[in-house]
Design goal:
The complex is a heterotrimer of chains A (312), B (324) and C (306). Chain A is mainly alpha-helical. Helices cover 69% and strands 0% of the residues of chain A. In chain A, helix 5 packs across helix 13 and helix 12 packs antiparallel against helix 14 (278-305). Classes of the chains: A mainly alpha (312), B alpha/beta (324), C mainly alpha (306).
């Protein structure tokens, strides 16, 4: 856990300075690779982050292997055995339609993770392009573009996503694009910060003086060198998106039946809470564990890369 | 001579860190008479600030630990006093001002609000009375329009002005001792002279003792009655200004004096003292200046020198004295 | 002075607000899949309402200004699904409920958060620091729709001490507001602790100690003014979060608030209610962010924006 107490996943719009995420370029040049090795060593020592990492690896494996692991199919109803508590045949019990909860939790995990990753990729693409262009152009345009980001920051994007769902139906592709668009703002800010600090480096000026066109500089030089903080923030974007998707599914505005993400399962669980608490407990626990793991890992990454280094 | 108002005997203050025990102050003894100005001179890291702050209770006790000694203020040992007693003394009978005027005032509160705190807290003045006394104090340190200054915020003032405010704030309670920790180091030379003038004037008016910490020999010469020379947590030499500046007996003091630029003499290159100060967590028990001293003897590496009195009221700690 | 900054903020917000309003108008009127999409079969009595309200045969610019005019009079139009109700009526019935829920939640969040953060900063790296900070991780990682059911399970079903649905007695207020406020209490406690710890190492705290002030006095008079600024900055996003979280909380606890009606309207595709409510929320957030900015300028005398 970080000692300053505020770095654990705040949603505040306070822009985290990009330079605080990654060791300065000069320091990295001097120390060669060892600064990254040092960061990884620090990360490995962080037990919470490592625990989170292994849990996520395990979870991802299980979700990938779901079609082979799952004992039943996710919509297989068995009306003889509705609302059964956990047993040997149904590890997590059954729901109101006799569907095996364990299977549904596994498939739900697949969907949650899929949406999480895809939406994050969308947010990275949009954010990186917007941020690098804004940072590279600089001046008034940059100012304007960032003011725009500032204003958008205050608006809860969930409403936009809900509105889109209302108008265009609950298409899963639309869902993850819309979710991705809720997260690009911070990414844009961070990339812009990186680009601005890189812009004045010699290799960029050399490229410019050789007549390399702007878009080439952005895509081949600036963006690859900004990847460090992008990756770190990605680990905070993914839980955010998974949370948003679960939120929408819980309210009935996310993935459509018969598909069910963890949010849907939790919603079903709440309805049946009094008679079948397992329907709530299992998916809620898994969602929580995943969120904890992602947060601890992300926090651990940020601590490990913090140039303020060793704190006594 | 009358009784000293402050008497520190063999003070040892160590920092316990993961890398080892840092002996920031390792056996310092001195006295301050009422009304006198004691200058404490030394490089960064010599322990001059830690020494004063340690017996005042301004350094948290871990990681600091007082390893020995006494600090007698009017007969009371501050090292054994309860925290509540210390709080009654601080800002009241013993005041301290610091090096960084830009950050030493609370930016979110008005100057007046901060200025009246010691008066209200220690002297039981009402806010109104304290406000009036504080305004007068601002005038005394040379701030024009004290009324407006009281209502202003610190960021509206320059470094020199803020330091004047700090001085005023330290003196409203008419303390017996003022400890000034490098008050002019962060200011530029003309402002420096003004601040020193103010201090001298106020000292003459109130009769308080002043402990003036600095690394600048020129400043010390102008303001101090007696001078203490510190190095690596130890005391090397002590005497009146005249003793230390004109008849120094310690190689370190002499080296310091040689390396000070002078207006009245044409110099070639300034002779600097070669080498670096020692690592305070790895002291051997010998003289800490051993490696940098041009005149060291074998015994200097293992044993810290005993005190030697070349003149009355002038002491020095160096093995070279013994040969004489 | 801070005044120039505030005027600057207003100057930027007005055009943005106008853009949002125009987009809302365009979406209601034109969006494919929207209420006036030609493929849609609209029941005649609703069509009558819509025509009367929106004058669909008039030229476009006239419709737009009519819309702006309506908004200026706080008229959000008729419901798309319920022919006898207007958006305003629906909002008017449910907004007070949500407002009350939001307010109580915010009070919980501030009370718990500031106290916990303050205590943690007073004695860092001891139990009074570790315990609240560990609990706050729960609040930060767990979503409202997990915390809510959890609290219901523990306090409502197993211990049976608190009611779990409805909005009638004062006891009904407790669980929902705690659920909603818990996450924000967690953030605020961390921000408070962080802010205070940052201040603690400042030189002017050393000055205060040198003046003989006691630790609690230093905390309250000197450290709090600066340390609370991160919390104040957070109030804007906290409000947006409470509005969003209320959607879930009202659903779980069966509270007749605006959030629940918003979700119902979304599921029913009642476009005018959805857009109108969203517009209301956006406006609220804009205004509150602006108020928070004013508060910040008031608290930090150094703020001078270009």
């Amino acid at each position: 856990m970080s000692s300053d107490g505020i770095s654990l996943y705040p949603p505040t719009p306070a822009p985290a300075p990009a330079s605080a995420m990654v060791p300065s370029e000069d320091a990295m040049e001097e120390a060669g690779v060892s600064l990254w090795q040092d960061a990884f060593r620090r990360l490995f020592k962080n037990r919470l982050a490592m625990g989170g990492f292994f849990f996520l690896v395990f979870l991802t494996l299980v979700c990938i292997l779901t079609p082979w692991i799952a004992p039943y199919s996710f919509d297989q109803q068995n009306l003889q055995y509705t609302l059964q508590p956990p047993s040997w045949t149904h590890w997590m019990g059954t729901d109101v339609l006799g569907r095996d909860l364990f299977t549904r939790v596994l498939y739900g995990g697949r969907i949650s993770m899929l949406v999480g990753i895809l939406a994050s990729i969308v947010s990275v693409i949009v954010g990186v392009v917007y941020g690098s262009v804004s940072g590279f152009i600089g001046g008034r345009t940059d100012n304007l573009m960032m003011r725009f980001v500032d204003i958008l920051y205050a608006l809860p994007f969930i409403f936009l996503v809900i509105i889109l769902m209302v108008y265009f139906g609950r298409n899963i592709f639309l869902l993850f694009i819309a979710l991705g668009l809720t997260q690009w703002l911070t990414m844009a800010r961070i990339v812009r910060g990186q680009v601005i600090s890189l812009k004045h480096k010699e290799f960029v000026q050399a490229a410019e003086s050789m007549g390399v066109p702007a878009h080439s500089i952005i895509f081949r030089h600036l963006i690859p060198n900004s990847l460090g903080p992008v990756i770190v923030y990605l680990t905070l974007t993914v839980p955010s998106v998974i949370l948003d998707e679960a939120f929408l599914s819980f309210l009935g505005l996310g993935v459509q039946a018969p598909m069910a993400s963890w949010g849907t399962l939790i919603s079903n669980g709440v309805e049946a809470m009094e008679v079948a608490p397992w329907l709530l407990i299992f998916p809620a626990t898994l969602l929580s564990l995943s969120l904890f793991s992602l947060n601890f890992l992300g926090d651990g990454l940020r601590d490990a890369l913090d140039p303020k280094g060793a704190r006594d | 001579m009358s009784a000293p108002i402050l008497e520190v005997k063999d003070l040892k203050a160590h920092f316990h860190t993961r890398r080892g025990i840092v002996k920031a102050v390792d056996g310092i003894s001195f006295q301050v008479q009422p009304g006198e100005t004691l200058g404490i001179v030394g490089e960064s890291g010599s322990g001059k600030s830690v020494c004063q702050m340690s017996y005042l209770g301004l350094i948290p006790q871990p990681p600091l630990r007082i390893a020995g000694g006494e600090a007698l203020f009017k007969g009371t040992d501050l090292l054994k006093a309860r925290p509540s007693t210390m709080r009654q003394l601080r800002g009241n009978r013993i005041s301290m001002i610091f090096q960084e005027p830009m950050t030493s005032l609370n930016p979110y509160l008005r100057i007046g609000s901060q200025l009246i705190e010691p008066l209200v807290l220690h002297c039981q003045k009402s806010k109104k009375e304290a406000w009036k006394i504080a305004s007068e104090a601002l005038a005394a340190v040379g701030i024009s329009d004290p009324e407006a200054a009281m209502r202003a915020y610190p960021h509206e003032f320059s470094g020199g002005m803020r330091q004047r405010v700090m001085i005023a704030m330290a003196l409203t309670t008419k303390p017996d001792v003022l400890i000034a920790d490098e008050p002019t180091t962060a200011l530029d030379v003309t402002v420096q002279a003004q601040i020193l003038e103010i201090l001298k004037k106020l000292q003459a008016q109130t009769g308080m003792a002043v402990i003036f910490i600095t690394h600048d020999l020129g400043v010390v010469a102008g303001i101090a009655d007696r001078v203490l020379v510190m190095y690596a947590g130890r005391l090397f030499e002590e005497g009146t200004t005249e003793h230390v500046f004109y008849r120094s007996h310690h190689p370190y003091t002499q080296a310091l004096l040689r390396s000070t630029p002078r207006i009245d003499v044409t110099q070639g290159s300034l002779p600097a003292i070669g080498g670096l100060p020692p690592d305070l967590s790895r002291l051997t028990g010998g003289c800490p200046f051993y490696e940098r001293c041009g005149q060291h003897k074998d015994v200097c590496a293992n044993q810290f020198p005993k005190v030697y009195w070349p003149e009355p009221n002038h002491r020095s700690y160096c093995h070279l004295e013994e040969a004489v | 002075m801070g005044l120039r900054y505030l005027i600057g903020r207003i100057a930027v917000m007005v055009p943005v607000f106008l853009i949002v309003v125009t987009v809302v108008f365009a979406m209601i009127r034109f969006a494919p899949g929207g209420p006036f999409d030609t493929e849609r079969q609209i029941p005649p009595d609703i069509m009558k309402n819509l025509n009367a309200k929106y004058h669909l045969d008039e030229p476009l610019w006239k419709q737009y200004f009519r819309y702006l005019n309506d908004l200026a009079h706080f008229d959000l139009g008729p419901s798309f699904k319920h022919s006898n109700r207007t958006v305003n009526e629906i909002i008017g019935d449910s907004l007070p409920v949500s407002a009350e829920l939001g307010l109580i939640s915010l009070v919980w969040a501030l009370l718990i958060g500031i106290t916990a953060g303050g205590l943690a900063a007073l004695k860092p790296n001891t139990w009074s620091d570790y315990v609240p900070m560990s609990i706050s991780i729960l609040g930060i990682c767990l979503p409202t729709f997990v915390i809510g059911p959890l609290l219901i399970l523990v306090f409502g079903l197993w211990l049976r001490v608190l009611p779990v649905a409805g909005w009638n007695s004062w006891q009904d207020r407790i669980l929902p507001s705690l659920t909603l406020g818990f996450a924000y209490a967690a953030y605020i406690s961390r921000l408070m602790r962080g802010g205070l710890m940052e201040i603690r190492s400042q030189d002017y705290i050393r000055t205060a100690r040198a003046k003989g002030l006691s630790e609690p006095k230093i905390l309250v008079k000197h450290a709090l003014r600066g340390g609370i600024l991160p919390v104040v900055s957070f109030l804007g996003p906290a409000l947006a979060g409470i509005i969003t979280g209320a959607l879930v909380t009202e659903t779980i606890f069966n509270i007749p608030g605006l959030g629940r009606f918003f979700i119902e309207s979304a599921l029913n595709r009642d476009y005018t209610v959805v857009m109108g409510t969203a517009l209301l929320y956006f406006t609220l957030i804009f205004v509150c962010n602006f108020l928070v900015d004013i508060l910040y300028v008031f608290l930090d005398p150094r703020v001078k924006y270009e």
